[in-house]
Amino acid sequence: MSQPGDPAYGIASSTEHKIAIFPGGVPLLADGKVVGAVGVIGSKPDQDHAVAEAGAGAGAGEFTST
Predict the structure, then answer these.
(1) How far apart are CA 41 and CA 2, in angstroms?
(2) Residue of 27, 35, 29 whose CA lies nearest to 52
(3) Integer Cα distance of 4 and 16 in angstroms
(4) pLDDT tens digits for range 1-58
(5) How much is the pLDDT for 56?
(6) Distance CA 49, CA 46 (A)
(7) What pLDDT sits at residue 32?
(8) Radius of gyration of the chain (CA)
(9) What pTM was computed for the model?
(10) Residue 56 three-state SS
(11) In whole angstroms, what separates CA 33 from the centre of its chain?
(12) Do residues 30 and 66 make contact, with C-beta atoms less than 8 angstroms apart?
């Protein structure tokens, strides 16, 4: 659970607690269409995002990320 002052604090209330949104994910695109995603959670959002980007990059040539 995010604490006051953390980058994702309050994000659950933006959806009235109906869904969970976590920073740290990137879509996978093939021919301009979303075909999947890489999601990482467990650290700070910018670190999670960097790891997700690296994971998406591991499929270089097959997918691109935004």
Answers:
(1) 12
(2) 27
(3) 18
(4) 567 777 667 666 666 666 666 778 888 888 888 888 898 988 888 899 899 999 888 8
(5) 86
(6) 5
(7) 86
(8) 14
(9) 0.61
(10) helix
(11) 17
(12) no
